[in-house]
Amino acid sequence: xxxxxxxxxxxxxxxxxxxxxxxxxxxxxxxxxxxxxxxxxxxxxxxxxxxxxxxxxxxxxxxxxxxxxxxxxxxxxxxxxxxxxxxxxxxxxxxxxxxxxxxxxxxxxxxxxxxxxxxxxxxxxxxxxxxxxxxxxxxxxxxxxxxxxxxxxxxxxxxxxxxxxxxxxxxxxxxxxxxxxxxxxxxxxxxxxxxxxxxxxxxxxxxxxxxxxxxxxxxxxxxxxxxxxxxxxxxxxxxxxxxxxxxxxxxxxxxxxxxxxxxxxxxxxxxxxxxxxxxxxxxxxxxxxxxxxxxxxxxxxxxxxxxxxxxxxxxxxxxxxxxxxxxxxxxxxxxxxxxxxxxxxxxxxxxxxxxxxxxxxxxxxxxxxxxxxxxxxxxxxxxxxxxxxxxxxxxxxxxxxxxxxxxxxxxxxxxxxxxxxxxxxxxxxxx
Amino acid sequence: xxxxxxxxxxxxxxxxxxxxxxxxxxxxxxxxxxxxxxxxxxxxxxxxxxxxxxxxxxxxxxxxxxxxxxxxxxxxxxxxxxxxxxxxxxxxxxxxxxxxxxxxxxxxxxxxxxxxxxxxxxxxxxxxxxxxxxxxxxxxxxxxxxxxxxxxxxxxxxxxxxxxxxxxxxxx
Lengths: 431, 172
Fold this sequence. Notes:
Chain A contains 22 helices and no strands. Chain A is an all-alpha fold. The longest helix of chain A is centred in the middle third of the chain and has 35 residues, at 264-298. The radius of gyration of chain A is 22 Å and the shape is globular. Chain B is mostly helical. Helix content of chain B is 73%, strand content 0%. Chain B has six helices and no strands. In chain B, helix 3 (19-52) runs antiparallel to helix 4, helix 4 runs parallel beside helix 6 (142-165) and helix 5 (96-130) packs antiparallel against helix 6. Chain B is elongated. Mean pLDDT of chain B is 89; it is low at 1-8. The chains are: A mainly alpha, B mainly alpha. At the A-B interface, helix 1, helix 2, helix 4, helix 5 and helix 8 of A face helix 1, helix 3, helix 4, helix 5 and helix 6 of B.
């Protein structure tokens, strides 16, 4: 059989397995192996498995992932969430929707030392949800703000999604973090605006009661700001590599958590949380490695790129198509799997297009756009993971209200995506 | 915490009370402690490099090797807790029997693939042992790393089979 035909069958088989509840990692492994065997024969493919899986696991580039995950898991147990929430409340509490704004801003501050959206949503949710309830926020408004705010965990560097994108596309992690800075700040401002406008439309007032804790809040939040400055500053200044920065972050958050009285049980829980998430990512990376090897044999990525070149379609149209596809896929599948599965296919296509930018600039810009659309997938129905987390924390059974509460933030996201697509300079200004 | 809370929701007590679960958990904690150690060594190396102009020799190799070991040790827990993400939106309207059968099929696929990879890696470990394959600076033997990954995948295959007989209570 011809490569393209096998490639098509392989993709179809992958989709069937995914629909039939086979975990994404194993579906990619199975179709990748079967397809490669069909094209290259049993012997060579099976022989390659003697070392290839180990090469994925003992890959220095990947070691940054479990380290950043551990840093976030420890930060979640260092008692920082309360301090950051209080700090945000001291500054924002008196505005309309002030407590919800403080929850969102608290998420943004926590996102500066945590690269995971789920951890950010869960950590800040535990602290802010009871307080939002006490201030009379409706269930949907409270959980919606926290689910959306949690996505600032990946939008503001460090960011596990960006780390994965950088590894998959061989881009510089530090450059991508730098590029994410302004879009991340825009996300925070956009979310605060979403809260304020919603509160204005509902005629809600502010809450001046949180102000007296300003000084105390700042003092308690200082370690978080210090860790952010050391870890991210260290990366930006070239003092250490991203992997080293993650290691420094682990040690600093561990010291802080211990100083704040983290119990041994909590420490073990942080290790276990890191373990399951890391294992999940490594297995998907292994599956994707084998599936990409198969795709490369079929020459499907080159064909896609060549097709785009001769089709005469506008690069902008193709970019928007890919982003829309990501938004749709983000509604039905896990965001990290989606990135790992599709970036090897779409990245060569997008970088080959002419946007009037250098290929590196396009790569970075596409990375940030991918990050933003992935983030939207975390809060859209039917399977927005952040919504699930906050929903579980809230103990209510009204999931629809949470999704409704997320709507103002989705509008804010749409505006931001449009701006980032239309003006690549927003992303590239610091790079 | 967050991620485990999600996983725990589907973990029946017949799983969490089993020695198999405790073994997988213990290995994951060991892997986590390896990560913490790597972080400490890396920080020591950064401090040494900048203040004493003497970095920890082979710190790059050590992180690569150690992170590989840790990630392998995490696999059994992920398998027994069934954290590997999947798409359920299309099959959620199937009836319970159909969903159970599909989940069983997925576990058989996971077990089969894990076992197959473990077997090949076992042969890879043997090759690496025979040819005395080592890292450049610290001479870390690669066969140990490969063998640990093979063993972890083998255990993951067993645990996938274990979950076949101890399925999660249906959530929906």
